[in-house]
């Protein structure tokens, strides 16, 4: 279960509650609405990770066609070109590139970033494809879309981690995903790091529960601290529902490190005096 949650194949929708990434009945509802899968519903149809599954199936109809209200759906009207649509089962969905651009423009930053990161990680789109398509964008919210495209990174391990990185970015702290840090006890790959001095970890209960994993986790944490890292750890609930608080914590620690570590200010590691 932990691996499926980490990859976005299974979504945790509440404490102890999980749902398949594909929204049940989405295709049938899209058919009833005579619409195409759109937004997060299209992202799920393509197997992309999302932070929050939509409460209603998100579908779109072409401009000029009257939207057909169907319970369980949220219908929008959009310019839909044939090149933007692909077959997904019995219905059509916006293509991966179009879906990423729609979500980047229409969703909160963290949501859009998680989907864009996922598309890159899975090899479903390239940065150049997304940026080239964005130049032809005729929709609204271009600025929000550009923020996502500037920050997207295929190294992000999962949507959970992307949400944590988004919270850091919104607080003005740029963190690099999946950084390997060497310590006296070995090498450790951390979720996010800044200059290998500030570390932020997205900790899921499924991954860290149990005596053996607790021992491993404590060793990892202590080795990183011994190496000089300041390690911050955030839970699934923090990332999903308390990103503003994450930003406050990360930015406060970032400011403190800048005051006390010369190597952190300059971006260079300065050897300590013998």
Automatic annotation (TrEMBL):
<protein>
    <recommendedName>
        <fullName>DUF559 domain-containing protein</fullName>
    </recommendedName>
</protein>
């Amino acid at each position: 279960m932990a691996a499926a949650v980490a990859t976005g194949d299974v979504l945790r929708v509440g404490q102890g509650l999980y749902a398949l990434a594909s929204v049940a009945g989405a295709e049938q509802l899209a058919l009833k609405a005579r619409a195409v899968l759109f937004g997060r519903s299209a992202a799920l149809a393509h197997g992309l990770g999302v932070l929050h599954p939509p409460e209603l199936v998100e579908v779109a109809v072409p401009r000029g066609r009257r939207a057909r209200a169907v319970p369980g759906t949220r219908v929008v009207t959009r310019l839909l070109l044939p090149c933007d649509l692909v077959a997904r089962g019995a219905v059509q969905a916006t293509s991966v590139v179009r879906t990423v651009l729609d979500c980047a423009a229409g969703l909160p930053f963290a949501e859009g970033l998680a989907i864009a990161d996922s598309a890159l990680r899975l090899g479903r789109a390239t940065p150049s494809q997304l940026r080239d398509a964005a130049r032809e964008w005729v929709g609204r919210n271009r600025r929000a879309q550009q923020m996502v495209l500037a920050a997207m990174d295929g190294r992000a391990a999962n949507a959970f981690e992307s949400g944590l990185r988004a919270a850091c970015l919104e607080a003005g702290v740029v963190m690099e995903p999946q950084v390997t840090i060497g310590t006296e006890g070995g090498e450790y790959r951390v979720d996010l790091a800044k200059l290998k001095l500030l570390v932020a970890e997205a900790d899921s209960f499924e991954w860290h529960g149990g005596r053996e994993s607790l021992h491993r986790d404590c060793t990892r944490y202590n080795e990183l601290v011994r190496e000089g890292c300041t390690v911050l750890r955030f839970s699934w609930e923090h990332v999903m529902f308390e990103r503003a608080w994450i930003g406050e914590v990360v930015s406060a620690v970032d400011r403190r490190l800048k005051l006390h570590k010369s190597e952190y200010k300059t971006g260079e590691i300065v050897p300590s005096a013998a």
